[in-house]
Write a structure and sequence with these properties.
The complex is a heterodimer of chains A (275) and B (635). Chain A has 275 residues and is an alpha/beta fold. Chain A contains nine helices and nine strands. The longest helix of chain B is centred in the C-terminal third of the chain and has 90 residues. The chains are: A alpha/beta (275), B alpha+beta (635).
Chain lengths: 275, 635
């Protein structure tokens, strides 16, 4: 079975069909502990924004076929999506958005959804999954991306994995992120040892912790998750958490940058700092 | 604007100067007139104009004459001849206050007797061509004891021809009245101011002119020259000092004819230099041309000196007089045309010179004309006229200085402007160059991308189409598998190309990471295990974007072949540094192939690409182990 989430294949991986007949990827720890399998009990509400009719049809089929997914709406333009978001009473759980919409950028839809429905996880539909597109989407608040040419089972699995807390990453994206966020493993840390844990509030809350910086570096060099977990002496789940944390920091970073710019230009005034 | 400021200031300055000039002239005239007025008679003073002339030698005949008496008007045949005048005057009341005689002109040498007492002597009557006392007004005190109700005054005078000898009307009266009044004024104006002060001023101007001549340069066609304007002015002023100062020289250094010739030369020199000055100011545009002007200027004084010599040596004064008249006429003619030129030209300098020339001319005419009519006072108007030339020179210097300052200022500004302009041009050129460089970079990048598309995706798609076309009739599953494989290769290669665009030059490790990421799924699908033995390799500076793409193609082909044909269980990707090369290897444990077999277009293309990037390709295959290694130089 092909892996659902685009990541490094590792030897401690097992693919099987679960009780619902859905292909599932299980990530085996060296100790053999399974990480949380895809949750089959809850049905996720999926909002879909895609202008290509063929792709839209495929996605709709996938969502309809999967028992854990339910279609909320399928929009083909930015305007239609915005209208639906404004009018809806039900918050969607998943957003699948194509960036290249005929009447604007899907990023606007992404940002609006992130604002209005904080519990909604957003995924960008990308052709190449190139670093620039992905990073831009992450900055806008996405937690994952999808390849247009992936097989249906992969897509479904990707959505479920995303809801389970995993985020995809590629070496190119990792290298790009490392440049963007400037891993403090090399940088001078003014606050000394207080920046040891990933959640510590340092002078810059978007600075990477040393562990996160290491993870990014290793991914950039081409190591798989299990190999990284072995090297760092943690579980694969921890590695994935690191990646999710990095993505969140990127979003904060870009928001912070926007705030900084706005303050500098004079649109905002410095009140109490965020978080 | 900043430029208007100095021009405006210059205009104000020249306006002020002109006003000052006019004021000075008016003041001078006023003072002179006042002096003339004040020289009018006091109550107890009397002018003696009647005299009895007795020729000393000879017949002793007596003639009634009216004073003033001009020596040159009357023939004096013998040298050393002197003439006697007998005057008488009455004194009313008792005379216990001292009296005085005021003699506006008496000379060249004289003796004065009052009631047979010698009360004054000027020079030695027996010495001809010696001292000259005629130039200054004289005052003789008369003690009260010598006075009687009826007094007899005898004056002997001896003169040299052409030397303005003679006797003017005599004023007699109380000493205070005479000395404090007419004599004082006449002396002040003629001697103190007229000769000494004007002489001093003229000397100063002359020296300054010489100084300016020595130091100032005029740039004519780039060659610095001395300005002849200052030369003419200097000569003119110095000549005039000689002429004007003569009044105070009672004992001239040379004997009379020589001294007289020198004076005539000086006078001619003054005329000549003034003429050349006017010509120079007009730009040699009127009257005779430059050479002719020089000729005239030189000949004038020489002729004058010569004639003077003739006259002073005993001839009649007529030649000299005639020469003077001629000169005046010539000057009149020249000054007229010069004035017309100055008016038409609106040139301030020429106009000022014209005014000065007219004043001098009129004064000279008056002084010459004095011979025609008698006049009591004898003010040296010509000295004051000369003052005007000095003022003109001062004006010229001032104007030139302002002009030079303004020019320097303008030059500085234009220089600054030109520098700024050049800077702007340089900046624009630099920007253009930058833009060109950027568009060139863009063009290069586009070319590279196109090349990559052509080599990678393009060739894959053509292969797929070819495969499809040749298998179109076959329901051969293996054929379909081939096409599918090729199309998947295309897809993967396209994504790799996109990833490679963001690779840093020299980042081979990143390249390998990308390859693993994009091909991992297909390996796992095919049930092949991937061994990742990539060590830390350094950045290779020789591997720029183009070369990285070529390397990617080689490695991709190797992996693709292994995937499709090798039927392997494990593929190992390795990279390590050894002996100055970085060795990147793809090893599989499949069935192998014969590297030397013909028809392996892929392999020969790989060799070609390796050669293109300066790397060595090592291919080694046998059943159970196939190894393709690319050796990249570290330099």
């Amino acid at each position: 079975m092909p892996p659902a989430i685009p990541h490094m294949g590792d030897t401690a991986v097992q693919a099987y069909k679960n009780e619902n007949g859905v292909a599932v990827m299980e990530h085996m720890e060296p100790a053999g502990q399974p990480v949380e399998p895809a949750q089959a009990s809850r049905r996720w509400l999926v909002l879909m924004v895609e202008d290509d009719p063929a792709m839209r049809a495929r996605l709709q089929d996938i969502v309809d076929a999967h028992p854990s997914l339910r279609l909320a709406a399928a929009c083909d333009t930015r305007a239609a999506a915005m209208d639906w978001i404004a009018a809806t009473q039900q918050a969607p759980d998943v957003l699948l958005v194509d960036l290249g919409l005929p009447d604007g950028s899907g990023l606007d839809v992404l940002q609006r959804v992130v604002q209005r429905f904080p519990g909604c996880d957003c995924m960008v539909i990308s052709m190449f999954g190139d670093a620039q597109t992905v990073v831009r989407s992450i900055e806008a608040g996405a937690v994952g991306y999808l390849y247009k040419d992936a097989v249906p089972a992969d897509i479904a699995q990707a959505i479920l994995d995303m809801k389970a807390g995993a985020s995809p990453i590629s070496p190119a994206i990792a290298r790009h992120l490392a440049r963007r966020l400037q891993a403090p493993a090399d940088a001078v840390d003014l606050h000394g040892p207080s920046a040891s844990s990933g959640n510590a509030l340092t002078h810059d809350p978007t600075a990477l912790s040393p562990r996160e910086g290491e993870v990014l570096q290793l991914i950039g060099k081409g190591f798989s998750f299990s190999e990284i977990a072995r090297l760092q002496g943690v579980s694969v789940h921890t590695v994935r958490t690191h990646i999710k944390g990095i993505y969140r920091k990127l979003a904060v970073h870009s928001r912070g940058e926007a705030v900084y710019e706005a303050t500098r230009v004079g649109i905002l005034s410095l009140g109490s700092p965020d978080g | 604007m900043a430029d208007a400021e100095p021009a405006r200031r210059l205009m104000m300055a020249s306006l002020r100067c002109r006003r000052l000039l006019a004021a000075a002239v008016c003041w001078l005239c006023g003072m002179a007139w006042a002096g003339g007025v004040l020289a009018a008679r006091h109550d107890d003073t009397q002018w003696l104009t009647q005299a009895v002339m007795v020729a000393a030698e000879g017949s002793g005949q007596e003639t009634q004459v009216m004073l003033p008496y001009d020596w040159d008007r009357h023939a004096h045949d013998q040298e050393g001849q002197w003439v006697r005048f007998k005057l008488s005057f009455r004194v009313a009341g008792n005379t216990d206050e001292p009296y005085g005689l005021y003699l506006p002109r008496i000379g060249n040498r004289a003796r004065i007797y009052l009631n047979d007492n010698l009360i004054g002597r000027y020079g030695d009557l027996s010495q001809p061509e010696s001292d000259d006392f005629a130039r200054a007004p004289r005052f003789l005190p008369i003690s009260a004891s010598l006075l009687r109700p009826d007094n007899r005054l005898v004056i002997d005078i001896a003169g040299d021809p052409g030397r303005h000898a003679g006797l003017s009307a005599v004023m007699v009266g109380p000493a205070d009245a005479v000395r404090g009044g007419p004599f004082f004024w006449a002396y002040t104006w003629r001697i103190v101011v007229g000769s000494i002060m004007m002489g001093g001023f003229g000397l100063l101007i002359g020296m300054v002119s010489l100084g300016l001549l020595a130091t100032q340069r005029v740039y004519d066609d780039g060659q610095p020259r001395r300005d002849p304007f200052y030369l003419y002015a200097a000569i003119g002023q110095l000549c005039w000092v000689a002429v004007g100062g003569n009044a105070v020289l009672q004992h001239p250094p040379l004997g009379w004819p020589a001294w007289g010739c020198l004076l005539a030369l000086a006078y001619g020199g003054w005329l000549a230099s003034t003429f050349l000055l006017c010509q120079h100011a007009s730009g040699w545009r009127i009257g005779p041309s430059r050479r002719w002007s020089y000729g005239i200027a030189l000949s004038g004084p020489i002729a004058g000196a010569f004639l003077a010599d003739v006259v002073f040596n005993g001839g009649s004064a007529f030649p000299l007089q005639a020469w003077r008249l001629l000169v005046i006429l010539a000057v009149l003619w020249y000054v007229t045309i010069f004035t017309r030129f100055a008016i038409a030209r609106r040139d301030t300098l020429c106009r000022l010179l014209a005014v000065a020339c007219w004043v001098s001319l009129l004064v000279s005419i008056y002084e010459e004309g004095k011979w025609l009519w008698p006049y009591a006072t004898d003010l040296p108007w010509s000295a004051y006229a000369s003052l005007l030339f000095g003022i003109v020179l001062a004006y010229v210097v001032m104007i030139r200085f302002s002009h030079a300052s303004r020019q320097a200022h303008e030059l500085n500004q234009s220089l600054a402007q030109r520098v700024a302009q050049r800077e702007a041009e340089l900046h624009a050129t630099y920007q253009r160059l930058e833009q060109m460089a950027r568009s060139e970079a863009r063009a290069t990048e586009r070319a590279r991308i196109l090349q990559d598309l052509h080599d990678g995706v393009g060739s894959h798609l053509s292969l797929a189409i070819h495969q499809l076309q040749s298998r179109i009739d076959d329901a051969n599953p293996q054929g379909q598998g081939e096409v599918l494989h090729t199309l998947r290769d295309t897809q993967a290669y396209l994504k790799l190309s996109v990833d490679a665009m963001h690779l840093e030059p020299g980042d081979v490790a990143g390249l390998l990471a990308n390859l693993r990421y994009r091909l991992q799924d297909r390996l796992t699908q095919g049930g092949i295990r991937l061994e990742w033995q990539v060590q830390d390799i350094p950045s290779l500076p020789s591997m720029d974007e183009t070369r990285l793409v070529q390397l990617q193609y080689i490695l991709f082909e190797a992996l693709s072949n292994a995937l499709q044909h090798a039927h392997a269980a494990t593929i190992c990707v390795s990279a390590r540094q050894r002996d100055g090369v970085v060795a990147v290897g793809i090893t599989d444990d499949g069935q192998g192939f014969d590297p030397r077999a013909p028809g392996g277009r892929g392999l020969s293309l790989m060799h070609e690409r390796a050669a293109r990037i300066g790397a060595t390709l090592a291919v080694d295959s046998r059943p159970g182990q196939t190894r393709i290694e690319v050796l990249l130089p570290c330099q």
